Amino acid sequence: MKATLLSTLVSLVFVTPSAHAWKPEVGEVPGEITTFEYVDGSALSLADLKGQPVLLYFGADWCIPCHKARPVVEKVAKANQSRGLKVIFLSNDDNRIRAKKQEEEKQMGARIAMPTMTACPPASCPGGVHDLGAFGKTYVLPTAVLLGADGTVKEKLERGEVISRGLEASVDHLLSR
């Protein structure tokens, strides 16, 4: 009985994926995010961002923990723009609010991407799009993915509290490499 229970627990620990087990993994070059585009309708291409450090922030207006993390992300974006950090906000909101996101992009000075109209026609995706094509999937919002200038994933931070406490140090570490 004890042996069965122990083997079951061990199996769960090693078989159950961790919060960070979704692709892309740290050290990998992610595939393209094919289900998102910039709010002006232009294509989002990770290949075009290669050569500079990038922060991809996945969030949504309907996501309560995202409200806590977003001001930190905006602060980090402004503070590190002169150091070459490129920040892309990937809004997992329904396309009904695309015009609002276009205004936010102008005020913020950072690019915002949303699900493509094909992936998420207005009023059809209240919970957003979590399948990002060749890039992988997001399972937790908010999530921050840091890419090095070489295009590889250097770090992933999930959940508002983790991002709020750790993003500044993570970006400093990324930019000092």
From TrEMBL:
Domain of life where this protein originates: Bacteria
Domain Thioredoxin: 24-176
Keywords for the protein's UniProt record, in alphabetical order: Signal
InterPro entries in the cross-refs: AhpC/TSA (IPR000866), Thioredoxin-like_sf (IPR036249), Thioredoxin_domain (IPR013766), Thioredoxin_ResA/DsbE_sf (IPR050553)
Any one GO molecular-function label of the UniProt entry: antioxidant activity
Keyword Signal listed: yes
Signal sequence interval, chain numbering: 1-21
Pfam families named in the record: AhpC-TSA
Protein's UniProt name: Alkyl hydroperoxide reductase
Species whose genome carries this gene: Pandoraea terrae
Lineage: Bacteria, Pseudomonadati, Pseudomonadota, Betaproteobacteria, Burkholderiales
